[in-house]
Amino acid sequence: MSTLISLFNTPYNSAPFNSIKNEDYKPAIISLIEEARKEIDAITKNTETPTFKNTIEALEFSGQQLDRVTSIFFNLNSAETNESIQKIAQEISPLLTEFGNDITLNQDLFKRVKAVYDVKDNLGLNTEQSTLLDKKYKGFSRNGANLNETDKSKLREIDKELAALKLSFGENLLAETNKFQHIITNEAELIGLPEGTKEAAKQLAESKDLEGWLFTLDYPSYIPVMTYSANRELRKKMSLAAGSKSFKGNNLDNQQNVLNITNLRRKRANLLGYNTHADFVLEERMAKNPETVKTFLNELLAKAKPAAKKEFEELKTFAKELDGLKDFQKWDSGYYSEKLKQKLFSLDDEKLKPYFKLENVINGVFTIANKLFDLEFNQIDIVDKYHEDVLTYEVTNTKGEFISLFYADFFPRAGKRNGAWMTSYKPQFVKNNEEERPHVSIVCNFTKPTKTKPSLLTFNEVTTLFHEFGHALHGMLAETTYPSLSGTSVFWDFVELPSQILENWCFEKEALELFAKHYETGETIPMELVEKIKDSATFHEGMQTLRQISFGLLDMSWHGTNDTEKISNVKDFETKAFANTTLYPEVKENCMSTAFAHIFQGGYSSGYYSYKWAEVLDADAFELFKEKGIFSKDVATKFKKNVLSQGGTENPMTLYKRFRGQEPKPDALLRRAGLIK
Questions:
Q1: pLDDT one-digit tens code per residue, 274-321
Q2: What count of other Cβ atoms lies within 10 Å of the Cβ of residue 562?
Q3: How distant is the alpha carbon of residue 599 from its chain centre?
Q4: How far apart are CA 142 and CA 563, in angstroms?
């Protein structure tokens, strides 16, 4: 037994961050791989007739300790990495890939799984058991079990190479983000920036023993510059730095990584009998195939593009009238959009921020979770943290029963990748009649407190927090038997429903009154501001929708083609993919693909469309809440029972219809977006 596992004698069996040294991970993982191999051997060497219990369940619960340790390790590699962790990641990834292949390409194991699968109709399985059996069988059949030995060897090599390339892509991107620093010593160059942004930049410079104001590509530094800086040269400099990440032809360049990843994914798909990587991926999605996705995106494009072009022309005209600007560029968009929004709605994000103190927003999302799902959150300090900024909570129901452990990590730092995400340190499941409850985490990059101000969130950051917390609820409220079907282990184009539906409460008066209180006076947000938030909710929705569609189409272009070997120039290929969604003049220094971590580092390849797909679901679902009341216990209970608690135990459309009583219609989304009346 690995010595690392012996450290888990902790409250709630939580991750023992303080006791684990970096050098512990590799030997522990090697040891746990061997233990998991023995568990697999015990299944294949069992002389009894294969059954659901001795084969499918045994396989499901094998390697659990390995899963726990690797989840801790790779979560740290995203949220609190360093050179040592990155080096270990490069060393252990091939070992884990090889072990994964050893399972899916194990002929004796597949024979046993297939033997159970072939008689599935006679086994009297319940719905969850049937889903698990189907998933296990496809896990083999879709990942090479039916290949000959030569092709199995090819698959192993491809998977090993892909694992290394994805890590390399992410490391380059993080290093590029951290590398950029822009110091300003003349205060006149900071014209237009909010005082809070200037103070944070001053504090950041001081922390690095620099004079002046320091700006980086971390969102809390970058976004205010692009939104408020009247210094166009500063906006341009920041925009070009962000848009050219890992696209400079240096040692951190990702162009070859992009080409290699897409080429290997296509080769892998072909080896397994699929035309493209998208065909392979989408077989196990609600969308089912690339044609459905392309039709979905293009139908939305037809609705959004006229609105986007009209908004864009109005914005250019506004910039020209306001400042005589004739050559409107990407780095002008955020600045003039904010000015136009202020003019049209008398709404300034800086005036909203005092009402969104981070602690109040956290309490607000907790209160909403309590009203809807009877959850209570108690901050605790008895579990280890991987960084002092992390907050830890015990989550219980109103009866005091333990539901989940919850970690929240809100501020940027050098070892953390940009963006926001939800993850898990331990899944929920039932084994030997004992239920294990989940350990869930959300990670964000919000503005840090300064010497004079607490962390005050932009409205966009508020919706981000609600979004990630929606994912967290999906993990926390799981009520399944098997870990691989628990929480967010659902079809990728269904996983965004719980996160996106929760964002809706940010726009509702009844919800805002619970937490939007001025950090100095305690005054509840004035109703006129709430109305302005609602009125401005569809501001530039056409351009926003077009942007999301463009990312989805770029993803499908990379992964929906069988000619990846013919692609030699990343920028040219991307420009062609964006041709039908482009509004701004081309910027030769920019490249989206080399920094598109969602599809080249994370799990969204052939899946970026799912954000818009899930918006159709969430808009349709929230209409029921609006109809019955946004805190309707009846609707919330139905949502919890049929969606949040069920994980991937059934087809998502079945679960959705059980909640909603009908299939979703895109009209609700188009109405909300103001694209139809």
A1: 999 999 999 999 999 999 999 999 999 999 999 999 999 999 999 999
A2: 15
A3: 11
A4: 22
Structural domains in the chain (count): 2
pLDDT average, residue stretch 99-107: 96
- Select which of 468, 496, 503, 615 is catalytic: 468
Classify residue 22: in a domain, yes or no. yes
Query: For all residues of the chain together, what is the average pLDDT?
Result: 96
Q: How far apart are CA 332 and CA 319, in angstroms?
A: 8
List the domain range (segments joined by +) for residue 74.
Answer: 5-146
For residues 85-113, average pLDDT: 97
The whole-number average pLDDT for the span 427-456 is: 96
* Inside any domain, residue 331: no
Q: For residues 495 and 643, is the Cβ–Cβ distance under 8 A?
A: no
Active site residue 586: no
Domain-located, residue 86: yes
Q: Do 128 and 69 belong together in one domain?
A: yes
pLDDT value at residue 676? 77
For the stretch 141-167, pLDDT in tens is 999 999 999 999 999 999 999 999 999
| pTM of structure | 0.93
User: With 80 as the cut, is the pLDDT of residue 6 above it?
Assistant: no
Residue 642 domain-assigned?
Answer: no
What CATH code is carried by the domain that includes residue 117? 1.20.1050.40
DSSP 382: S
Pair (132, 203) in one structural domain: no
Q: What angle do CA 618, 624, 629 make, to 5 degrees?
A: 115
What sign has the CA pseudo-torsion 551, 555, 560, 566? positive
Q: Answer yes or no: do 83 and 140 share one domain.
A: yes
